[in-house]
Amino acid sequence: MLNALVTLAAEEAEHNPLLPAMYDIVWSAVCFVIILIVAWKVALPNVARMLDERSAAIEGNIAKADEAQKQAEAALEEYTRQLAEARTEAGEIREAAREDGKKIVAEAKDAATAEAARVTAAAHAQIEAERQTTLVALRSEVGTLAIDLAGGVVGETLSDDARATAVVDRFLADLEASEKAAK
């Protein structure tokens, strides 16, 4: 059916219906040239400028990203170095604290030993003083009892203190000598 229409139109017109008229071609060419010149002179420079700006911005951002990457790597290295220093310092502090603890314990032991020796010496001195006091009191009492007993055996009072003291001392010395001989 389309073929029939084309042939019918060809018979009625003298020129080919598929080709436009010559004035249409000329005016279309003029319009195309005007649009081409406007695009070449106005749009193309604007597009080129915009692409240059975008290219510069991208290059600037890449440079900034590279710089930020370098700064981040430098900061990481610094952080790693500081962390290693902090760990080393912490180890030194721990060692110093251990040494101080050992010194404190040793000093406390020495102080406790010295205090124990002082307390022991004081206790021995006190015991010796009490022994001497007891010995003196015992001598006095034993002497009095011995004189009373001797006076009861002899039948007379021994009132001479110097003689009584001599007798008591001799008696106690004999008693101590027999005690030491028994040990």
Characteristics of this structure?
transmembrane, 3 helices, transport, mainly alpha, rod-shaped, 91% helix, single chain, 183 residues
Mind explaining what this structure looks like?
- By secondary structure, the chain is an all-alpha fold.
- The protein contains three helices and no strands.
- The protein has helices spanning about 1-10, 20-155, 160-180.
- Helix 2 packs across helix 3.
- The radius of gyration is 66 Å and the shape is rod-shaped.
- The mean pLDDT is about 85.
- InterPro entries: ATP_synth_B-like_membr_sf, ATP_synth_b/b'su_bac/chlpt, ATP_synth_F0_bsu_bac, ATP_synthase_B_chain.
- Keywords: ATP synthesis, Cell membrane, CF(0), Coiled coil, Hydrogen ion transport, Ion transport, Membrane, Transmembrane, Transmembrane helix, Transport.
- It is found in: Cell membrane.
What's the average pLDDT? 84
- Total strands: 0
Low-confidence stretches: none
Q: Note the run of SSEs as H and E.
A: HHH
What's the tally of helices? 3
The backbone outline, from C-alpha atoms, is rod-shaped
Strand content: under 5%
What profile does the largest beta sheet have? none
Termini Cα gap: 158 Å
User: Nearest-angstrom radius of gyration?
Assistant: 66 Å
Secondary structure class reads: mainly alpha
Protein name: ATP synthase subunit b
Membrane topology: Single-pass membrane protein
Family: Belongs to the ATPase B chain family.
Keywords: ATP synthesis, Cell membrane, CF(0), Coiled coil, Hydrogen ion transport, Ion transport, Membrane, Transmembrane, Transmembrane helix, Transport
